[in-house]
Amino acid sequence: MSLFERVEIKTAEQIDAMRRAGLVVGRTLELLRTSVRAGVTTAELDAIAEDCIRSSGATPSFLGYQGFPASICTSVNDEVVHGIPGDRVLAEGDLVSIDCGAIVDGWHGDSAITVAIGPVSDDLTMLMAVTEEAMWRGIAAARLGGRVSDISHAVERHVRGAGRYGILEEYTGHGIGSEMHQAPDVPNYGRRGRGPKLVEGLALAVEPMITLGTKQTDVLDDDWTVVTTDGSWAAHFEHTFTLTPQGAWVLTALDGGRAKLTELGVPYGGRE
Q1: pLDDT of 69 higher than 70
Q2: CA atoms 25, 262, 243, 191: torsion sign
Q3: What is the Cβ-side half-sphere exposure of residue 132, based on CA atoms within 13 angstroms?
Q4: DSSP 8-state assignment for residue 198
Q5: 47, burial (CB in 10 Å: exposed 0-12, middle 13-18, buried 19+)
Q6: SS3 assignment, position 256
Q7: What pLDDT score was predicted for residue 6?
Q8: Cβ neighbours of residue 62 under 8 Å, at least 6 residues apart?
Q9: CB of 237 closer than 8 Å to CB of 208
Q10: Which residues neighbour 250 within 8 Å (Cβ) at sequence distance 6 or greater?
Q11: Which residues contact 269 (CB under 8 A, 6 or more apart)?
Q12: CA–CA separation, 241 vs 250, rounded Å?
């Protein structure tokens, strides 16, 4: 079966269910953003997230996924993605990337943020800003009839134009819908005009993972946590979005992405 045949195209009603899941994820991440502080353990953040997801009538996407033991990923400092919550106590000056997913009526939402605990260096502040903006530039580059790599190119162009950063290549964004990870992959680098066509009903998760140093990574002995080989710190931002005839609709943003897309001069395509 070809990659193109495996791409899942959703109906409008199914996209609406993904929006409901996306709102659960968005609200959970906002709660976690306000809960992150020095002295809190990553396991405590996980408990907050699971309670918020379940009390919203949703199910955590990550819990039990290929054996993953928690409802969120918490990746601290040189940990880029897939960190397992546990007894680690967060401290002033840390960066923590929080990845969260939820399922509503069988449909997934997936999003991530990076949060600084207290004041951090200008380099780290810029790293977070560049990573988040690159995500938005990727979404803003998507057009019906375009190609997946248009997103990839826009992400890379922003990061490369901002400084000397590492862009992870082994880990990418992805299609999403009735499963959390689906075809097609959405790399954070590449030339325009390649990959599957962007069509109505396709939903994608765009998630730059950017470091202050190398793009090379290792996986810790827990078989999950991805760290930079040179110990450089990283940031990770992610949103799930789709395209309607009116424009882009960011399913995991509380406002659907309206404010940021408008700022970038991109039509907003939400049905709300």
Answers
A1: yes
A2: negative
A3: 14
A4: -
A5: middle
A6: coil
A7: 79
A8: 68, 70, 71, 72, 73, 99, 100, 101, 180
A9: yes
A10: 22, 139, 239, 240, 241, 256, 257, 260, 261
A11: 242, 243, 244, 245, 246, 247, 248, 249
A12: 4
